[in-house]
Specification:
By secondary structure, this protein is an alpha+beta fold. It has one domain: Aminopeptidase (3-Layer(aba) Sandwich). It contains four helices and seven strands, in the order βααβββαβαββ. β2 and β3 form a beta hairpin. The longest helix is centred in the middle third of the chain and has 15 residues. The relative contact order is 0.15.
Length: 175
């Protein structure tokens, strides 16, 4: 199930594949999420809930939504959750293991989420990014996401995260 347009041959000659997540993936996904967010531990206020993700918490999310996983050398190395919300698709918990970053896995997962939005008849994808992570915001902006609004977590008097969105063009005919 490798999409040649998204797969990365990298220096090691291996490619990654994307596929829908299943319940049995939850434990590996939780490990990926925790490892991917570890660099933010102690830097975010409020702390990210990603550090507390478990197989059970992700299975609960999968029971009501969907996710995509990235597979490299038979192991899950990335994931993203895709949640339809009214007129848009909300993406959360985009995570890629640090040791395989810069192989376009994150961009491929976001592209797949955009395809999912189109398949559901939605013309926009939204996500939240912490204000304390300007490099991450810049990465999303490089993928075409733009600032929509600033938001505060409950109990915080000032904004703690921004909502970014990408308007999706219609599919080319024949696609």
């Amino acid at each position: 199930m490798i999409d040649p347009a998204l797969a990365d041959s990298g220096n090691r000659g291996s490619t990654f594949a994307l596929r829908p997540a299943v319940m049995d993936d939850a434990e590996a996904m939780a490990a990926v999420v925790r490892a991917a967010f570890e660099e933010h531990a102690g830097r975010l206020d409020p702390p990210s809930g990603a550090h507390a993700e478990t197989a059970e918490s992700l299975q609960a999310k999968l029971a009501t939504g969907r996710a995509t996983v990235a597979i490299l050398d038979d192991a899950i190395v990335g994931c993203v959750f895709e949640i339809p919300r009214g007129d848009h698709l909300y993406v959360s918990r985009l995570a890629v293991l640090p040791e395989v970053r810069h192989r376009k896995i994150g961009a491929a997962l976001m592209h797949r989420a955009e395809e999912q939005a189109r398949a559901l008849g939605l013309s926009r994808v939204e996500l939240g990014v912490r204000i304390a992570l300007p490099r991450l915001r810049a990465w999303y902006e490089g993928l075409g996401y733009r600032w929509v609004r600033s938001n505060a977590h409950a109990g915080f008097p000032r904004p703690t995260y921004d909502t970014l969105a990408k308007e999706l063009g219609s599919r080319p005919s024949g696609a």
